[in-house]
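step: validate -> pass
step: tokenize input -> pass
step: predict -> running
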Amino acid sequence: MKLTTIVEPTSVITEQIKTIRTNINFSATEQNLRTLMITSAMLGEGKSTVSSNLAVEYANEGMKVLLVDADLRRPTVHKTFGLSNRQGLSSWLAHQTSDINDAIHQTVDNLFVMTSGPKPPNPAELLGSKMMDEFLNSATRKLDLVIVDAPPILPVTDSQLLANKVDGTVLVVRQNVAQKAAVRDAVSALKRSHAHILGAVLNDVSDGKHSGYYGYNNGYYSEQDDQ
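step: predict -> pass
step: emit ->
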């Protein structure tokens, strides 16, 4: 996974990430956005790349940001930032560490990263627990924004359990990968979980000249989107 916002700060893709950040802020104007979940319908749509790069851009804006890898089954954030994953979110939720600071790493200015930790036998149970509620409440008292890189919606129930614990959810949809039916099912699942869906990030969009662009839609696929 490439942290374009760090290695290519003036690139077109970095500018698109900045635009997405701005549009998310506009989408959340009616509430104080302190916790943001990024997910996708299925695997391989780029939600972890979007999460990590958005976290960098929010930090560049001067906010104190915590990026949490809540994909306890297929974690990637520790690899992206070159961090140890011996302890992380699973360690804290399972009471395997007494000091939460052992699971959190400072990276670039204003950006802290909590890795997933060792793969637990009960990811959904941990993410849906009161400990997760307490963790998010505690983190938002100390930081400006918590970005949760969550598992895909359809393969497992983890993100559905997280959805009503956060202030807003953004769905990443990869062009030519995501099936419309799968995206529609993911939106339905989020609605059943009482998620506040802020919008969708369209990943890997091509304009005919360039590829790899991101777009943002502050609506989302509806039951009527059958064309």
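step: describe -> Residues 219-227 have pLDDT under 50 and may be disordered.
step: cleanup -> pass
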